[in-house]
């Protein structure tokens, strides 16, 4: 920690509790908090309250709906069945599995202006022809292949009553499918950023 600038400090806190910061921020960045937030609208309101007038906030998150541009992923594939069930279970536990779809609306509802929303393809694997998408897909493929059990165990054992062995079989089937270079799986990443009006009050 010797290389941390003198005007920087780190705080560990629960972002869903009441914020107790004593000065507002010029910029708030929230990234990849899907499946961790129960009340996204409240989070956006607290970000708005604690942003300086004229300051900015940015949110980045996913729409976890797996699809394909060419129909290579169908409703009958194990990967699609898993994805559909994953989102369903998240929603029944009160967690929004696809917050990326709603970032723009939440920002506007909280009071941000000049809100800009962008949507990016997030491939799974190196199947895209575009060089940048191919690299992005390689990293995404790696995180999914290595993280399937970590994403799935708690949800599927606690809320679906499956055994660990049953979840392992599901994960194995998914890996076998997305290893196939003819399987062109993708989902979307959403970015939304906006500005707090100059005349708005900041939290004190």
SSE sequence, one letter per element: EHEHHEHHE
Termini separation: 29 Å
Structural class comes to alpha+beta
Identify the overall geometry.
globular
Number of strands: 4
Itemize the secondary structure elements and their pairings:
Elements: E1 25-31, H1 40-49, E2 51-67, H2 78-92, H3 103-110, E3 113-124, H4 131-158, H5 164-178, E4 185-195
Parallel strand pairs: 1-2
Antiparallel strand pairs: 2-4, 3-4
Helix pairs in contact: 1-3, 4-5
Task: Write a structural description.
By secondary structure, the protein is an alpha+beta fold. The chain is built from 5 helices and 4 strands. It has helices at 40-49, 78-92, 103-110, 131-158, 164-178, and strands at residues 25-31, 51-67, 113-124, 185-195. Strands 1-2-4-3 form a 4-stranded mixed β-sheet, with helices on both faces. Helix 1 (40-49) packs across helix 3 and helix 4 (131-158) packs antiparallel against helix 5 (164-178). The mean pLDDT is 94.
């Amino acid at each position: 920690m010797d290389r941390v600038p003198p005007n920087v400090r780190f705080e560990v806190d629960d972002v869903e509790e009441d914020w107790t910061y004593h000065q507002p921020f010029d910029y708030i960045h929230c990234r990849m908090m899907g499946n961790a937030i129960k009340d996204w609208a409240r989070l956006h309101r607290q970000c708005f309250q604690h942003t300086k007038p004229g300051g900015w906030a940015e949110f980045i998150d996913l729409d976890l709906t797996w699809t394909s541009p060419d129909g290579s992923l169908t409703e009958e594939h194990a990967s699609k069945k898993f994805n559909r069930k994953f989102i369903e279970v998240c929603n029944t536990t009160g967690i929004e599995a696809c917050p990326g779809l709603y970032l723009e609306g939440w920002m506007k509802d909280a009071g941000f202006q000049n809100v800009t929303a962008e949507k990016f393809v997030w491939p799974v694997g190196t199947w895209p022809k575009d060089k940048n998408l191919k690299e992005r897909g390689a990293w995404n493929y790696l995180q999914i292949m290595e993280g399937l059990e970590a994403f799935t165990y708690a949800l599927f054992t606690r809320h679906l009553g499956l055994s660990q062995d049953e979840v392992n079989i599901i994960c194995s089937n998914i890996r076998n499918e997305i290893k196939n270079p003819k399987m062109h799986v993708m989902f979307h990443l959403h970015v939304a950023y906006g500005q707090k009006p100059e005349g708005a009050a900041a939290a004190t």
